[in-house]
């Protein structure tokens, strides 16, 4: 740990910048070249392509950042466009008012489609949003008197399409800028803590709640961003086409936008642009004669791209470029070390305050059954502050269930859990995390698409972060930020999860079998870290562990669980002579003794 690096968050991650430059140039060239050449047909075609890029960037936020499936983006775009067109062409509102009404209507539609995401996910959510996209054209026809479905609605652009230079007009400038802003907005979100929180909530809602995030709220926020982009696209659509009719926003539009994201490359800056080129410009313009085969072309392209480049065109190009440049990428380095963090730990132990004498956590007579299996059968335990408290017991004895009951990942049938004297039995997992309960899992929840540092830095942080720990990891933030978590070995993934839990500033961190899969050296470092944390801070460590050697060496208190009950609890010295539990520790006498 020689040099200190800044952890100041960057607005846009370095590796996204090249693609942003390329994307900006592509969008600007696409819309401005035909404009300056005076080719009105291609000018309009490219502006419409830019409109689709805006909507696709929004959909990509949902798909790649929040891991939500929506086939309703075309419907949101359609409602925004239709209302803006009606407001201008029929209700005779000025353009700015019409645009505002369109945006509002699109947002309301988007949020209505988002509500089911609080209850259903994945394909179920996809089907619900698909229903919205299917319903829109029918609704437009059903209310034909209000929507003027039979004649369609013409829009009057009040001069924003008057040429300034050549055929350049405010509309072209505006749509081009908005498309560029959209790809920048996507990159800023991807680089932000908010974006990482969304990703964690999408990929592992369980892990997200243990760092104090609210996955449902994050999903709604992702829908709001995505709907906003679709609504902006809808309003721009009206400007570009100057007409809406009953056939303008069919299911095919929503399907196309979804495939644009998948085929273009989910989570990539250039994805929406490349997707629009392949799924709109190529079939609708370059292969105009094959218009009848659009759906067939979609299907074939999706199949081929998914076969050759499962990560989409932009992802595949990325991979190819990395191979060609033969850069042994920084992100392929695979080792993080706890040694510098251990070296930074102060030697002095924290003094015991009055507060420290009251127990941190009290579990009283907790019961939880799964069908006929009594996973917890009246378990009770007390965890003192600033200690390492281990829970041990045979396989299936209820240890993980006990941790889950403590961190709120499952509800209990009866009994109570108290944290710092406060009954948290019916408090949500996310709220418990915000009260200071951190947690890791048997299978580490590490996001491969994020760097090591981003994985550590993606939860909420309390006001009680561990000062020396924060200083130590800050010195490594820049280096870890260039490391790809996808290639970390299993043991190192555990480290990342534990560092994430400690970085949140917990009062208690509950670790589920953290030593499984660690090498001997890693175990020693890891045990030392847990001891240091408990000794030199007010953080308490609660650890479920099968590695009894480790437990015996680092735990202040050991609770033994069997059959869903606590059958013994005490210091290692006290348990050493207990005959009741001797059978559970055959083979570790050398440690105990
Ligand atoms: N979600 C669930 N549904 C049904 N049964 C469950 C569920 N979770 C746990 N169980 C059962 O409850 C009992 C206790 O499981 P638990 O995972 O808490 O044990 P454990 O001590 O952590 O085991 P291990 O050491 O193998 O991880 C087991 O019989 C298990 O099969």
Automatic annotation (TrEMBL):
Cellular component, GO annotation: plasma membrane
Which Pfam family name is an example for this entry?
Answer: BPD_transp_2
Fetch the InterPro entries from UniProt.
AAA+_ATPase, ABC_AA/LPS_Transport, ABC_transp_permease, ABC_transporter-like_ATP-bd, LivM-like, P-loop_NTPase
Q: Name one GO molecular function term.
A: branched-chain amino acid transmembrane transporter activity
Q: Its topology with respect to the membrane?
A: Multi-pass membrane protein
Superkingdom of the organism of origin: Bacteria
**Which keywords does UniProt give here?**
ATP-binding, Cell membrane, Membrane, Nucleotide-binding, Transmembrane, Transmembrane helix, Transport
Q: Which residues form the ABC transporter domain?
A: 361-588
Question: Which locations, inside or outside the cell, does it occupy?
Answer: Cell membrane
Report TM segments: 20-38, 44-62, 74-91, 97-115, 122-141, 168-189, 222-244, 256-283, 295-317
Broad class of where this protein is predominantly found: membrane
Stated name of the protein: ATP-binding cassette domain-containing protein
Species, as recorded: Aeromicrobium endophyticum
């Amino acid at each position: 740990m020689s040099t200190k690096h800044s952890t100041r968050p960057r607005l846009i991650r370095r590796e996204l910048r090249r693609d942003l430059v390329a994307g900006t140039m592509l969008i600007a060239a696409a819309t401005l070249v035909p404009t300056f050449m005076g080719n009105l047909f291609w000018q309009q075609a490219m502006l419409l392509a830019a409109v689709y890029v805006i909507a696709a960037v929004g959909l990509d936020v949902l798909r790649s950042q929040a891991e939500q499936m929506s086939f309703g983006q075309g419907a949101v775009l359609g409602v925004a466009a239709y209302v803006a067109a009606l407001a201008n062409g029929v209700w005779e509102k000025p353009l700015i008012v019409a645009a505002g009404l369109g945006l509002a209507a699109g947002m309301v539609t988007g949020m209505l489609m988002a509500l089911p995401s609080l209850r259903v996910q994945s394909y179920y959510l996809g089907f619900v949003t698909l229903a919205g996209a299917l319903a829109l054209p029918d609704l437009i026809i059903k209310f034909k008197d209000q929507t003027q479905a039979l004649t369609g609605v013409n829009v009057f652009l009040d001069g924003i399409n008057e040429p300034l230079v050549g055929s350049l007009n405010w509309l072209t400038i505006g749509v081009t800028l908005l498309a560029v802003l959209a790809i920048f907005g996507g990159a800023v979100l991807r680089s932000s803590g908010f974006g990482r929180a969304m990703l964690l909530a999408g990929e592992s809602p369980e892990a997200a709640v243990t760092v104090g995030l609210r996955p449902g709220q994050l999903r709604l926020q992702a829908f709001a961003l995505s709907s906003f982009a679709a609504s902006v696209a809808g309003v721009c659509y009206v400007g570009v086409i100057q007409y809406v009719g009953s056939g303008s926003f069919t299911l095919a539009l929503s399907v196309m936008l979804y495939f644009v994201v998948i085929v273009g490359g989910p989570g990539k800056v250039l994805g929406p642009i490349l997707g629009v080129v392949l799924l709109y410009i190529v079939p609708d313009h370059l292969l105009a004669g094959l218009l009848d085969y659009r759906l067939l072309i979609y299907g074939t392209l999706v199949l081929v791209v998914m076969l050759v480049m499962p990560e989409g065109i932009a992802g595949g190009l990325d991979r190819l470029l990395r191979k060609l440049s033969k850069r042994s990428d920084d992100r392929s380095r695979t080792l993080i070390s706890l040694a510098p963090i251990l070296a930074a730990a102060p030697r002095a132990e924290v003094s015991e305050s009055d507060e420290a004498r009251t127990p941190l956590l009290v579990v009283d007579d907790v019961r939880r059954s799964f069908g006929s299996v009594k996973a917890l059968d009246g378990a009770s335990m007390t965890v003192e502050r600033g200690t390492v408290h281990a829970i041990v017991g045979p396989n299936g004895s209820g240890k993980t269930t006990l941790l889950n009951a403590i961190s709120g990942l499952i509800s209990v049938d009866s009994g109570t859990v108290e944290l710092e004297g406060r009954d948290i039995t019916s408090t949500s997992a996310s709220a418990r995390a915000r009260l200071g309960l951190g947690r890791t899992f048997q299978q580490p929840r590490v996001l491969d698409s994020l760097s090591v540092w981003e994985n550590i830095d993606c939860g909420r942080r309390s006001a009680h972060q561990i000062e020396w720990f924060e200083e130590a990891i800050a010195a490594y933030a820049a280096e870890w930020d260039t490391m790809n978590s996808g290639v970390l070995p299993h043991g190192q993934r555990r480290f990342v999860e534990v560092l994430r839990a400690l970085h949140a500033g917990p009062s208690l961190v509950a670790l589920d079998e953290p030593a499984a899969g660690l090498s001997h050296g890693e175990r020693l470092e890891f045990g030392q870290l847990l001891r240091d944390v408990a000794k030199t801070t007010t953080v308490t460590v609660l650890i479920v562990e099968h590695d009894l050697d480790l437990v015996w060496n680092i735990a202040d208190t050991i609770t033994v669980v069997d059959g869903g009950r606590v059958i013994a609890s005490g210091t290692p010295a006290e348990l050493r002579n207990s005959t009741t539990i001797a059978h559970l520790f055959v083979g570790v006498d050398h440690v105990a003794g």
